[in-house]
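From the shared-data thread, chain only:
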Amino acid sequence: MGRIDWIPMADMPERLKDGHDVLFWSDDESVIALWDRFIDGEDDIYEDWATRKGGHLIGATHFAEVNAPGILCAV
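Structure, as tokens:
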């Protein structure tokens, strides 16, 4: 079994904000989230990380890329 190489949030590349799943460490647990759009108020649209449950990702300190077995990703 491989270990997860957690990377600090400050080092996240912009290319991961493309809508695919990313693994986060947040509030002492792992969470899968993706970059998504939200509506605030009537017409204000903004982008942020969304969990699979549809909520905002809060308190994330580290991330790791989600990839298929045997495939390495470069940060």
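DSSP finds no helices and five strands in the chain.
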